Amino acid sequence: xxxxxxxxxxxxxxxxxxxxxxxxxxxxxxxxxxxxxxxxxxxxxxxxxxxxxxxxxxxxxxxxxxxxxxxxxxxxxxxxxxxxxxxxxxxxxxxxxxxxxxxxxxxxxxxxxxxxxxxxxxxxxxxxxxxxxxxxxxxxxxxxxxxxxxxxxxxxxxxxxxxxxxxxxxxxxxxxxxxxxxxxxxxxxxxxxxxxxxxxxxxxxxxxxxxxxxxxxxxxxxxxxxxxxxxxxxxxxxxxxxxxxxxxxxxxxxxxxxxxxxxxxxxxxxxxxxxxxxxxxxxxxxxxxxxxxxxxxxxxxxxxxxxxxxxxxxxxxxxxxxxxxxxxxxxxxxxxxxxxxxxxxxxxxxxxxxxxxxxxxxxxxxxxxxxxxxxxxxxxxxxxxxxxxxxxxxxxxxxxxxxxxxxxxxxxxxxxxxx
Length: 419
Hints:
The chain is an alpha/beta fold. 32% of the residues lie in helices and 25% in strands. The chain contains twelve helices and 21 strands. Strands 1, 2, 3, 11, 12, 13, 14, 20 and 21 form a nine-stranded mixed sheet that branches. It has a four-stranded antiparallel sheet with strand order 17-18-15-19. Helix 1 runs parallel beside helix 12 (395-418), helix 3 packs across helix 7 (186-198) and helix 5 crosses helix 7 (186-198). The radius of gyration is 22 Å and the shape is globular. The two termini are 31 Å apart. The model has no long low-confidence stretch (mean pLDDT 92).
């Protein structure tokens, strides 16, 4: 095998420059290690990437940025992102028309649909208040150690009626978990609910790709090498797709779950959830508010007018509408979604121009009830693995997993040096 051109040996090679790989590399560098971060694509980011298509800014799948995550607070400078928030809460399209589910502590004037007899009963509102207070105030460590099961079981145990679950929680959480049976871990649900109650959902002015771009820009020169696919792990490092070898004392695989399983044969990874996002350009915005819209009939996961959140996502003054659906819909399914959007927004969508479509396989790892919320980052001596598939499927989970992998590498290298 050919050596790399610099013929150097690194303390650690990190494979994959998504959120986990960027966090791991930053922490290893901060500890004084010589690190090389290898990325197969043309830029850092993993699934957190943004493209410019036909004059529009489009993320690779609908994504929001939650400011409450501890790892975000630790690592990301928010001001340069020029964040703009979504309206707190969700608009739910029902047979009775749109109803607003909102946090009355943030916008009490918009909470009229939470009055008994509209979206929820008085008993539901009491149960929801208790659930939300507990999740918002409890330390995350307490929620992680709580009893597990499915989200559906957790909602029932909280005393929420099947009517509220089917009208709001199931359609809303389908877009969060990318599954519509509410079979996701109850503990993960409580953590997600906590983050939504405590944080603000936003979009960066340049799209979600601005977040990993900022993390990558803070790395020293020559640490990140793009266009450098790794084909295998060798006994003394990694082997690149072009046959060159890179020597390293430790290797951290920070890729998506499928590539991780290829590079680490025998690694158990969860199933992945696939989602498709459809982007339409329209002359007049069907809704002027920067709010997430869900459908109680579950004909799609969610939809929103992105340019109501970030007007700069369009360069020609037209509005950009994002709609996400499970899986990869065919032409007839797409037509049905468009018809549903016309009903939900109360407009004729015949003139909507499809400008982009993104299908993201393994957009999130499946997290069924009773599944551990974190998995070991140690794979073999000198071999480590991190990513959202080793933790909760979120930006917080990916960043935290990268931090755990860095701590494991440092501990093992120090123990080896002391032996």
